[in-house]
Amino acid sequence: MTKGKIEISWKIYSRKEVDAELNKMIEFAENQLVSSYAPYSKFNVGTAVLLQNGVLIGGANQENSVYPAGICAERVALNSAAMQYPDVAVTAIVIVASKKDKMISPCGICRQVLLETERRYGTDIRIIMVSNTLVYEFASVKDLLPLAFSDENML
Questions:
Q1: CATH 3.40.140.10 fits 19-144, yes or no
Q2: 20 to 30 A Cα–Cα from 103, which one of 1, 68, 94, 154?
Q3: What three-state secondary structure class fits 10?
Q4: What average pLDDT values come out for the chain (155 residues) when binned by 10 residues?
């Protein structure tokens, strides 16, 4: 038998400790909450995707009564960025929710899409999850999905 160990690292800041650039991104993501359509879960999520060229792209979750037809805020923003700026890498994503007492972590599908976006552009994407009082920062989606499925698994 062989044993292994997977370690990840992250940073946790108080909301008061974030710099002006990150605070701007958080506020942008919070402003996306008004575009969320979540009549079933009442769980509104907003995102801000920062592109390498400095452009911010917003996203908000869009639910549907046919469950799999909805789409998470992260994928709304990532897909919008890919359509509007297909040759510009994503460098960070901020995720906030209307229920801000806890951090909001991307679902499995969003993690996989984030991983594919990192691989597409060959750059890590900072993942920033925000609650009322704290900001959690991960250097890459690989920290959230360390045993990810990728094209390397298909070779």
A1: yes
A2: 68
A3: coil
A4: 93 94 97 97 96 98 93 98 98 94 90 95 97 95 86 70
Phi, psi dihedrals of residue 64, rounded to the nearest 5°: -145, 145
- On whether the CB atoms of residues 17 and 26 are closer than 8 A, the answer is no
Q: Which of 7, 27, 63, 74 is catalytic?
A: 74
Q: Running DSSP on this structure, what letter comes out for residue 27?
A: H
| Cα Rg of the chain, angstroms | 16
Model pTM score? 0.93
Active site residue 152: no
Question: So where are the chain's domains?
Answer: 19-144
Nearest to 36 by CA among 10, 71, 83: 71
84-90 long-range contacts, Cβ below 8 Å, gap at least 24? 84/57, 85/51, 85/53, 85/55, 85/57, 88/51, 88/52, 88/53, 88/55, 89/51, 89/52, 89/121, 89/122, 89/123, 90/49, 90/50, 90/51, 90/52, 90/117, 90/118, 90/121, 90/123, 90/125
